[in-house]
Amino acid sequence: MSDESAFPKGDLMKGKRGLIMGVANKNSIAWGIAQQLTAQGAELCFSYIPAMEGRVRQLAETVGVEFLVEADVMSDDDMDKAFAEIKDKWGKIDFLVHAIAFTDKEALKGSFVENTTRQNFKDTMDVSAFSFVDSARRSAELMPDGGAMITLTYLGSERVVPNYNVMGVAKATLEASMRYVARDLGPKGIRVNAISAGPMKTLAMAGITGGRQLMSTGRDWSLLKEDTTMEGVAGAALYLLSGIGASCTGEVLHVDAGFHVVAVPDGIGAS
């Protein structure tokens, strides 16, 4: 993970305020995006769940963020309270970063058919897909002058990835939801997009059996022959959330060193 100095400084987000949902630790994609946005002058609010409060608050302090709200995305009461706090303090916001996903680790092993239970399927969809729809609706109410939203997805939504299982189905739902949210909010001047990042050393990747091999394969098969970088993903987020991303909405932007376009890697099938 790059330190704060790795993120270009400027004023693309000067005067902009927004909510970051999903910071878990210093390796979180949401945290990399937060560093890039603050480097460009944005004022941020972080959401957290109680178990993560200390860790999130400690990170927030390093970039001068003091505004945090507790928000369990599975609780309407929690979400009501969190967005009421944001409205009371700021009145309106300019952007939303949604980086929340969760499933039972046992569901990320072996067979999708055998290891997916009814309850886990419901919970995974609730946290990983519906939470974006709910957060987008609530955020849009605080965007009277338009704004921008992004969520995070992964190639397992489009193609079968070993052990990604129910999370791939949830990400496919998330991407479809993003497009419908973009349709509904477009007339209000709100742009809505998703970033499909390649495998990275995050808490989410650590929970997937064979995650290290996924990263190795991603690097070896990619067009650039390199790992997906936090700087690349954060830069894409800055583009989509700032004014230079005008006219872009309903899009899934792949940031994976070109891995997603490869059908067969070099050397396989060659004579």
UniProtKB/TrEMBL annotation:
What does the record give as EC number?
A: 1.3.1.9
Pathway(s) served? Lipid metabolism; fatty acid biosynthesis
Keywords, ordered alphabetically: Fatty acid biosynthesis, Fatty acid metabolism, Lipid biosynthesis, Lipid metabolism, NAD, Oxidoreductase
Q: Which reaction does it catalyse?
A: a 2,3-saturated acyl-[ACP] + NAD(+) = a (2E)-enoyl-[ACP] + NADH + H(+)
The broad enzyme category this protein falls into is oxidoreductase
| Keyword Cell membrane set for record | no
Any keyword Oxidoreductase? yes
Report the leader peptide range.
none
Q: Which Gene3D superfamilies match?
A: Enoyl acyl carrier protein reductase, NAD(P)-binding Rossmann-like Domain
Q: Name one Pfam family in it.
A: adh_short_C2
What family does this chain come from, according to its entry? Belongs to the short-chain dehydrogenases/reductases (SDR) family. FabI subfamily.
- Kindly provide the name given to this protein in its UniProt entry: Enoyl-[acyl-carrier-protein] reductase [NADH]
Tell me which species this is from: Hyphococcus aureus
